[in-house]
Structures are given as C-alpha cells and as structure tokens.
Amino acid sequence: MNVVTPFEGIGASVRRKEDVRFLSGRGQYTDDINRPGQAHAWILRSQHAHARIQGIDTAAAAAMPGVVAIYTSADLAAIGGLPCGWQIHNKDGSPMAEPKHPVLAEGKVRHVGDPIAVVIAETRAQARDAAEAIIVDFEVLPAVSQTTAALAADAPRVHDDVAGNLCYDWHIGDKGAVDAAFAAAAHRVVFETTNQRLVPNAMEPRCAVGDYDTTTGEHTLFTTSQNPHVIRLLMGAFVLQIPEAKLRVVAPDVGGGFGSKIYHYAEEAIVTWAAAKLGRAVKWTADRTEAFMSDAHGRDHVTRAELALDKEGTFLGLRVLTHANMGAYLSTFAPCVPTYLYATLLAGVYSTPAIYAEVKAVFTHTVPVDAYRGAGRPEATYLLERLVDVAAKQCGFDRVKLRRRNFIATDAFPYQTPVALQYDSGDYFSTLDQALKTADWAGFEARRAEARMRGKLRGIGISTYLEACGIAPSAVVGSLGARAGLYEVGVIRVHPTGSVTVLTGAHSHGQGHETTFAQLVADKLGVPIANVDIVHGDTAKVPFGMGTYGSRSLAVGGSAMDKAMDKIIAKAKRIAAHLMEASVEDVEFERGTFRVAGTDKTKTLTDVSLAAYVPHNYPIDEIEPGLEETAFYDPKNFTYPGGCHIAEVEIEMETGRVSMVNFTAVDDVGRVINPMIVEGQVQGGVAQGIGQALLEACVYDQDGQLMSGSMMDYTMPRADDLAPVSVATHTTLCTHNPLGVKGCGEVGAIGSPPAVINAVVDALRDYGVEHIEMPATAPKIWSIIHGKSV
Amino acid sequence: MYDFAYHKPASVADAVKLLAADPDAKPISGGHTLLPALKHRLNKPSALVDLSGIAEMKGIRREGNSLIIGALTKHVEVAKSDVVKAAIPALAYMASHIGDNQVRNRGTIGGSVSNNDPAADYPAAVLGLGATIHTSKRKIAADDFFQGMFTTALEEGEILVAIEFPIPEKAGYAKLKNPASRYVMAGAFISKGPAGLRVAINGAGPCVFRQSDMEAALGRNWSADAVAGVKQSADGLNSDIHGSAEYRAHLVTVMAKRAVAAAG
Amino acid sequence: MPQVTLTVNGKTHTVEVEGRTLLVELLREKLRLTGTHVGCDTSQCGACVVHIDGNSVKSCTTLAVMADGASVTTIEGLAAADGTLHPMQEAFREYHALQCGFCTPGMVMSAVDLVAKNPQGLSEQEIREGLEGNLCRCTGYHNIVKAIAAAQDVMHGKRTSIAAAAE
C-alpha cells in the first residue's frame, strides 16, 4: 500500500536518502572497488613543460620487482587520440585548430604532467618504484604558459602545425551596431581583467579500474565520472574502437566533480586497454599531486571590455575581447566554454542593445582547461559585474541604481538578447530588493564606521547576475558545434507491488539526486520515497544518458523522468479504466489514486501495477503487460537562473588580510524541489566563488612550471576562511520545462566572485583603487594600502 | 615512499646505536614532517628509527627556573599542560596553534625543532626563549643550534632528547599563517627573562633568526610601539607566490608588535 | 616484513605490512575498511582521519607500524552495534552537512574528537577553527558547522536528541 505523507513531495526539505551510507563509511567510490587479480598502474609524467622525447629506456624498470608491463605511445599505435566534443569555427568560417591529443605523449611532452609511460605492477608502490627507473631522454624546449604571451610572433609553438598557437578566433554579435553605440555614447568605460586559472580539486582524486572478461570479450571501466555514457561513447568509438555492447562504464559514488570529471581522460583509456591486453584488472588512482597536473583546470581568461553609456547611465553597447587559455590540448568540451558558455552571457540581466565579443583561444604549455563549476558564465558575470561597478564609479552613478536602470523589465520576457539567447523568465528587481533588505544595504555605512574604529576597512559589494544552464537543446548546440545531443533519459519502472525504480542518465556526485528525484516520483505518482530507488551511473543498467554538468540534472533529467511518468500515468489510466469498467476519458489520477470522475470508484497505483504484471483480468489485446516507460527529454531552451549576491568584507589594515563577514544570496532557481538541498548547493557554490575571489590561484611561471602544484601552495577554502552564507530564493518558473525548474548547482560560483571583489574595492575606496585582480590576497591589498608593489 | 627497515628502540642509547650503525637511517617520532617528505620521495632513508617508545624522552617538568620538555612531547600535550601554562603561557599558546588538531595529536616538539623548517613554529620559541637543547651527547644553546634552512647543530646520529626553557618574566608569540599550507608566513616570539631580551623571527627568512634592532628598541622601552618603529630589512627574506620579501619584512614588524602586546 | 597487531573498531588484527605501509593503506587495502579516504598527499585534507587511542589523527601521515598495539576507530566503528548513528552522524544528516560524502568520514571523526575534547562547548568560530585540518569542497562548511554545534549539545547532554537540537 502506497501512502504518501505530504512532506515528501515537491517543496519538502526531505533529509537525504544517500546520507546514511556516506556517514557510515559504506559509500562505494571507485577506489573502494577491487577486482580479483587486480594489478596497479602508475603513470610516468613529464616534469618539463615542453620537451622532445628522444628516447625512452624501460629496461631497468621492467626488471624491477612486481612489474607486469610497461607501455609507451609506441605500444598504443593502434588506438586513437582523446577526442574533443565541440568544434568552434573561426570568424572566417574555417574550423578551429584541433591537434591530436595522444593518450601517451608521442614524440613531445607539452605540459608538466603530460603522461609519458604507464607501469603496471602487482602493487601501486612497485609500479611507482619502477616508473622512477624509466630513463627518458629529453631535449628540453622553450615553453610558453601565459595566455597573451602565447600569441607573440616568437612564442614557442605548442603544436608544430598550429601557427601562432591560435586555436580559434571567434566572434559573436553585431560589431557595426556596437561601433555606432560607442560613437553616440556620453560615457565610455574601459575595464581590463584576468580571470585566473583555478584547479577544481574535488576531494576525491580521479580513479579508474579497467577489467576484461576473456570469455565474453566484455570490457568494464569503473571510473570517477560525471557521465559514464559519454565516456563509453567517446572512449569506445574514438579511442579504443570497442562497440557499446562490449563496453560497460560504471561511475559509482563519485566524490565531487565540479566539471573536472566530465571529460574523457587518458587514464581511463589506459586501464581499459591494458586490462584487455593483460587479461587482468588494472587500477589507477591519482594522488593529489597528479590531480593538480592532470585534472582539467578552469577559467584562465584575459579580457578587455568597453561599455558605452548615455548620460543618464543607460547601457548602449558592450565590446569585449577575450583571450582564453586552452592549455596544451583540447579537453573534451574546452572550446565551448569561452564561447557559447561565456560570450552569450554578456547581456547578463541588462537590456544592453548592442554587444560584440571576440574570443581568441590559445594553446600554451599548461594543463588543459575546461569547464569548472559555472564554466564561462562566472567569467562573463565577473566581467560584467565588475564593469558595471567601474562604470558607476567613473561616471558618478550609484551602483545599485545603475543596475536597476538597466535591468531587463519584468514584463519583457521572453527577452531576446543581442548575443543569441532568449531568456524565458526572470524578475531581477525582486531578487535585488530582497537581497538589499536581507543584507541591510541601507545600514552599511554605520557598519563601515564601526569597523574603522577597530582598525578595519569594511566594504560591501553587489552582483546581479544571470546564467544559462539546463543544457541544452540538441539542435541548437549542434548548430553551434557540439558533437553530441544534450537530452536526458529517464526510465520509470513501476514494480508489481507498486514500488518504483528510476533509471536516470543524470549522475549524482553530491547533488542529492537519490532524494530529489525520489521526491518527484512521490509528488507525481504518490509513492513514498522509501519505495523509490534511483539508479544511475552504470551503462549496463541505464539505457543512455548525457550526465550531470551545467546544472542540468533536474531541468533535463528531471524533465525526462516527468515525461516518463506521464507515459506511465497514461498507460495506467487505461488499465485502471479496464479494472473499474469505465471509459479511460473518465479516469482521473492524483498521487497514487485512480478515480472514475464524480464517483467513489478508485484503484491504487498498486492495484494497477499488480494487474499489469499479473494480467489475468487485463485488456491483453490492447495493452502490453508491464508498467515501465522510457522518455528522452530534449530541452526547448536553456534555463536562466539569476539573482543577487551581496558580500561584506573587512580588511585588516596592518596585514591586508580580507575576512568575509557576511554573504547574502537571493537566487531565482525556478521551482524548488528540496529547499535544504538548494541551500546547500548555493552555499557550496558561493564557497568556491569566495575561494576564487580571495584565495585560489593556479600559478605557472613563465617557463610552464606549476608553482601551485599542491595544497601547500594552492589555497583551498577552509571553514575559518568563510562566513555563514544566507540563502533565500525568489521563484519565477521556467516556462518551457514541465517542472518549472531552472537549476541551482552553479549559481553560487557564478554570482559571488564579483560581489566579493566589489566589496574589497569598496573597502579600499579611500585608496584610489579602481580594481584588484583575483584572488585578492593579503599581500596585494597590503601593497595598495601601503603604496607598494607586490 | 621508498621502502625502509623499521626499528623501535626502547632507549636513547639503543637508538643512537642503530643510527650509528646505519648512516642512511633516520629518526622519526610523530612523523608529521618526515612522512610527507617521504611520501613525495624527497628522501630515501634505509631505515626509520622510531623514537616513540623511549620513555626517557617523554614528559614535561619544571626544575627550578627551567621548564624541561621531552623531545617526544606532542604539541597537544604542551598546549594543554598546566605546568607549561603556568610557567610559559606563550609556549602553550604557540603549541595550541601549530598545524591542526590532528597534527598536534601526533607531531612532537623534538621533531619540529630537529627539522628546523623555516616556516615551523617551535624554533621561534626555542630561540626566542634562549632555550638549551639536550641531545644524546651534549647541551647546545639555542643561539648555536639553528644553522640554516632545515639545518641544525645536530650531528649525524645525534638525537634531540629534551629542551630546557628558562622561564621568562614575560613572553608572547604572534604569527600570520600562509593561507594555503597554514605554516608560518611570518612570526615573532618575544621574551624578557633570564636569557635576556630576545626577539626571534620565524617564517620570514630561510631560518629562524634574532631581530637585534627590535631587541635594542625593547631594551630601551618595552612596548608594542617601540617595535612598531623598527623596520625589518627585506634582504635575504623569503619571497614566493604567497608574498614578497618586502611583505614579509613588513609582517615581521606587525607580528613583533602583536607578540609584545600579547606578552603584556 | 614487519607485523602489526592492532585493534580496529573493537576487533584485533595481526597483519604483515611493509615498513612504508601507511595506516590508511592498512585499513583500506588489508582490512578493506574503505570508509577512510585519501584526498591529498600533503596531510591537509583530513579525509583520512581516524581515532588512535581516542585521538583524531591523519592515517595518511601515520605508518602502520606506528599503530602497533593501538586501538583504532574508523568511521565504520562509530555507530552503535545496532546501527544507531552516533549523534555527530545524525547531526550531519539532519543539517545536510554532506554532499558528495568523500570528506565526510574524516570530517565526522575530526568533529567527534573536537567536541569530545571541548566539554565546555565551542562557539561557531571555534568550530570553524577546529576544522582547520579538514577540507570539504562541496558544502562551504556552513552546514557542517551547524551540525557540529547541534551534535555538541547532544554529546554534552544538553539536549536529548539531534531532532530536539534542530528545533
């Protein structure tokens, strides 16, 4: 008997179903998996940013204890390079440069950490011991690590066949209209900034276990992935040429991704290939040092932006030139990040009528860069929200009024921006008003004065942002260069006694899908969440899926489930009509109960499911037995969460140290399924945004050596670096998906960095500072306060 | 890590014998400096001699005007010791702020001082209090002990057994942590007592050092303002992605000021 | 090879290890107690925290041989034998103090020790500072701090249950 309490459906802060296993140490992460007969891999990586490999001598290493095999690129001649999933076209219509990304370095290494050889041994320590005994004859070559330096005429080439290290030179928008806007403008504001490179640093290092069944020829890969079906597709079709039916990819519990576990990595192909070659399972687990030099990094833009305003402050035009660092090779989705996930967001929440953006993507001798929480949208938001503050200051406008003046009107939706997107809904005035009130913006000057008495400089900053997520309509992204569709798959399997198994192509690695998705089923089918099992992460169980990234799981994956539930209800109504001897048109369904309209004749979902599986009294000629439906949902548009973030900081004048004292987020993420989980997602995203604003930077020296190659030098936010984060939501519904949801996974990381930097700049207003680059570290601020160079 | 043999002697004499017999062996106590280095394969000892079973290297006791702390004493034990809190509260304060709780539960004073990491805390207390190092074969004054980055007066096979701190009239410690590693960016341990007036600076340079200009200034006028006027030269100080030598030089003055204020 | 005898979650084991075997490797690979995780190699993230003789330590920075004769508690041994969660585990669930779950075992073990060693009670700021040895990339710590504050009330007998503390 299915009985639903009203607290388990949409809108309830249900405690998470997955938590007890994680809290008891019974999570099952990839490194927790051990296969019989398993050997261990260690990857020998380049310590040079750029070098020619003149020879590799593995003889001594091969004789070391426990060594099973050593492979280099020579052994992998038959397998393909790592594919790129998105092709950008240049301004002239020609395709981007797409150099081969070999699984193991072929002839040259191009960044510190580039894999050269793999040692497989009985234990991990033995494999590492032997890897050190491999002798590589390097001819060290000059390297280039900085984005703009890579374009210099005399810069070392990353790939011999890519002139000027230019991957693509792309643009969007109406250049003529922008030029005209600037010609007519009363104010022209120029802002230049760097959005620094970050290391995602999910707490679980990447891991891959390859296994091979010699009797069936079936390959299995257990991997730390956000999208196992995508890995199966990319690795099977492009790298190892294994048909889907013979390749199973499992992404079990995954300890955070933030984008870094979307991509197909070399180690996945290596262990899968080696397991078949050796006829035994092979495990590779990264240590954190390897993660720093082999996980895709994020951000790394250098940008010049110009804003044209009329004399009242109305935005007339925006011109942007961005250089984006791709690293040494193209990671899976790298090319789309600084283009379609960035430049299309440059309207933000403003009705700027003319926008033109150029993006030059360059290769450097650094780790590949790809999507990291927010992916392009934090870069766009940071640029805009800093630019608006700079404009307010230079032109003498109030920074809140200037924003409000330029907001897209609440009745202007759907709103077509000049950079391709069409926003379906939003209400930027309400989120702004609510945030100003929660943060007590009006009372700030008293707090500033009080802090000054304590020797602290206090500042407040605001960001009114928008993002595009819930990616994405397949036909649209296909026309923009995506080499995949971006729909999602949901299967609803109602069992004979009415419990439900959901198979979803979305993958949960912290998002709480096992709870939120069960709530969708509880809400619609009336099945208690305890009786709803969410299955994900295994290509052998789930028909297909595009995975979890871009805040898409609920908007796209949830919508697929909703669509499948509609099919279930439609079929079940026909069965119920038969059982109740009524016409199907007269059968109503609500949360688990079928009723003949206007009567007290009812059947439960369990009555129907039982009949469907035990079809004794059943319209067997008209309806197939069973109660299971599959839906593929392809979204009609992106979703557009937005909101307002307000940060309050204090600076210790003697040391330049910045402390977060308050953070307020008011976000419109569409319909909220589980408020507790939404708050947690926003808090976590804000922490990463504060990390970018104040703490984190991936630093390469000029020669391509990684200076921040461990947590000793890369500042991860700790509990005492952060302040409580106040989270509230103000909902406008998404108009084009059945759930009205927009997505909440990235808003925190997108909206917060400019709010924090705006607060830091505000705190330093007496020092004539217009801008401070991220991260706003103590030495940088001290040098401003004390008029010194850093 | 490379593999190594493991020994766990029960006496200082046995430990010395083991180390003498194998010049590539290394002593280990809490392991919180050595093991991270071994994990990164920065070091290849043939054997580790685990000192943690040696009773004579343990314990905290007060003897007249001295506080004697056994080398194996963990940071948490110093931090929580009523004896230390009564005799040298600044030392207990320092110990309670080394690393994190888990580091303090394993790391030892002897390990920290023997290792002489420029960004470690304890060397500043040893130098700033004018302590005496008791080893397996002699006593060494703090002023002679710290010789450079990761270098001390300890000879091969010589074991730090205990540290004798003269009890000062007043002492204070302040530091700013590196935001990433949480080691010391710049710190100052300042004391006035039987060992004289001493200002020891850690974190900022390649090795803990005494700031004699500040000592002179405090000699004239014991106050935070007195050190506030003393500028540390940036020459020879550390410079890295977390801060220039100039910034660290500035921090030296700020931390010294705070340490004096803390000392009262 | 050296032999280590230690008690883990109340059960005594004698295991052969290499000198270089870390305690976390012994737990994960020899005893298959995979709840204790490894998230870094610089002794900073705290995903590997276990208790040795009642004190929280980083099992990635402890040699297995150094735990000879010790009593070790891992996350698997924290709940009661009947599966009843420890108040800290219960609080983490109630306050949504975990997302991906990877840092969680170490975070919980650190938090239990932190609270146990501070019977006077900890302020929010003291809890934040007490978590210096544990990194979480998902939650922003906000809910972890709240959970620990609630759990300490129960652990110190000021409230009877996490649910009561939540009100």
Written description of the protein model:
The complex is a heterotrimer of chains A (790), B (264) and C (167). With 790 residues, chain A is α+β, with helices and mostly antiparallel strands. Chain A folds into 3 domains: 6-25 and 487-633, Aldehyde oxidase/xanthine dehydrogenase, molybdopterin binding domain (Aldehyde Oxidoreductase, domain 4, 2-Layer Sandwich), CATH 3.30.365; 36-141 and 203-256 and 261-294, Alpha-Beta Complex (Aldehyde Oxidoreductase, domain 3), CATH 3.90.1170.50; 407-466 and 638-785, Aldehyde Oxidoreductase, domain 4 (2-Layer Sandwich), CATH 3.30.365.10. The longest helix of chain A is centred in the last third of the chain and has 27 residues, at 553-579. In chain A, helix 8 (377-395) runs parallel beside helix 17 (747-763) and helix 14 packs across helix 15. Chain A has a 7-stranded mixed sheet, with helices on both faces. In chain A, strands 7-15-14-13-8 form a 5-stranded mixed sheet. In chain A, strands 18-26-27-28 form a 4-stranded mixed sheet, sandwiched between helices. The radius of gyration of chain A is 27 Å and the shape is globular. Chain A is 26% helix and 24% strand. Chain A starts with 18 loop residues before the first helix and ends in a 5-residue tail after the last helix. Chain A is built from 18 helices and 28 strands. Helix content of chain B is 35%, strand content 25%. Chain B has 12 helices and 14 strands. A 5-stranded antiparallel sheet of chain B has the order 4-5-10-6-7. A 4-stranded antiparallel sheet of chain B has the order 11-12-13-14, with helices on both faces. Chain B is globular and about 55 Å long. In chain C, helix 2 runs antiparallel to helix 5 and helix 3 crosses helix 5 (142-155). The mean pLDDT of chain C is 96. The termini of chain C are far apart. Chain C has 2 domains: 3-77, Ubiquitin-like (UB roll) (Roll), CATH 3.10.20.30; 87-166, DNA polymerase, domain 1. With 167 residues, chain C is an alpha+beta fold.
